[in-house]
Amino acid sequence: MSTQREFEFTFAHFDALRKQAHNYSGINFTDDKLEMFYARLAKRLRKLGITSFSEYVKRVKQDQAEFSEFVNAVTTNITAFEREPHHFAHLKEQMKTFKKSTVNIWSAGCSTGQEPYTILVNILPFCRQKRIEVKVLASDLDTDVLSKAQAGIYKVKDVEMYGQAVKKQFFRKGIGPKEGFCMVKPVLSECIEFRQLNLFYPWKLDRKFDFIFCRNVLIYFEQKKKLEIIDRFASNLVPNGILFLGHSELIPRDDPRWKNIGTNMYQLTGAG
Ligand SMILES: C[S@@+](CC[C@H](N)C(=O)[O-])C[C@H]1O[C@@H](n2cnc3c(N)ncnc32)[C@H](O)[C@@H]1O
C-alpha cells in the first residue's frame, strides 16, 4: 500500500505520531485515522522539505513549533453556524428569565468560531435591550482555528440561514477581491475573549460560567477522561448553570448532580 505513496508511511510511523498527539490532546485516534494522518502530514513534510516520516517523527519530538503545527493538522475542526440549533433556542429562552447584569458563556472547543458567534447572534439583541452584558470565552487547543475564529471571516453562504436584517446587523459583506466572504462586525467580536486552552489537562479560569458549550469535542476522548472533564465543567459552572454537549455525548443518568433538561443539555443541580 505504501509503495504508491510519495513518502513511506508505516503503521509504526502512524502509531508513534498518534501517541504523541494523544499524550498532548487526549484525542483517541483509532486505526482508521491512518490515511487521514498521511494526507494531512504529507503536506507538512513537503513544506518542511523533509523526505521521510522517520525524520518527521523525530522533528515533531524535538521542535515545539512543529509539534504545534502537527497537532493543528490532525485535529478535526468541522463546525457550522447554527449547528444543533435547539441549543441556541434553549439559550434564548433561558435569557428571558436571566436576572444578573452579566452573562458568562464558555464555548470550549470553539474551532473556527461559528459556535461563539452563533451564541451571540442569538442572544445579543435581547441582552442589549435588557442591558445584560454578554461575555464569551472561546477556547480551543488548535491555534490555527483560533486565529481563524479571531479573524471572523466566513463565506457568505455559511451565514445564508440568517435573514437580511441579521446579516446586516452582524456581518460586513466583502467587496472586490473579498466578494463571496463576510466578516463579523466588532459588535460581536468585542464580546469574545479567544484563548488557547487544552481540555485534556486541568485548567485554571478566573470566573464561573452560566452556560458552557462543549459540543462535538468530548467525542474524541476516552470515557474516563470525558467524565473527568465533565466534572471539571461542574466546578466552572454557577449553581443551576447549563452544559450543552454534542449530539452523541451523554452524561450517565445515575449522576445526581446533572439534570437532563433536553437533548444533550444538562443543568447542574447541586445534588450529589
Ligand atoms: C469538531 S470541532 C467542534 C466545534 C464546535 N464545538 C461545534 O460543535 O461545532 C472539535 C474541536 O475540539 C478541539 N479540541 C480537540 N481536542 C481538544 C482539547 N484537548 N482541548 C481543547 N480543544 C480540543 C479541536 O481542535 C476542534 O476545533
UniProtKB/TrEMBL annotation:
Coiled-coil segments on the chain, per record: none
Name the positions where S-adenosyl-L-methionine binds: 77, 79, 83, 115, 140, 198-199, 215-216
Q: Which InterPro entries match?
A: Bact_Chemotaxis_MeTrfase, Chemotaxis_MeTrfase_CheR, CheR_C, CheR_MeTrfase, CheR_N, CheR_N_sf, SAM-dependent_MTases_sf
Enzyme Commission no:
2.1.1.80
Asked if the record carries the keyword Repressor, the reply is: no
| Membrane-spanning ranges | none
Q: Where is the CheR-type methyltransferase domain?
A: 2-271
One GO BP annotation is:
methylation
Its biological function? Methylation of the membrane-bound methyl-accepting chemotaxis proteins (MCP) to form gamma-glutamyl methyl ester residues in MCP.
Protein name stated in the entry: Chemotaxis protein methyltransferase
Q: Which organism is it from?
A: Alteromonas sediminis
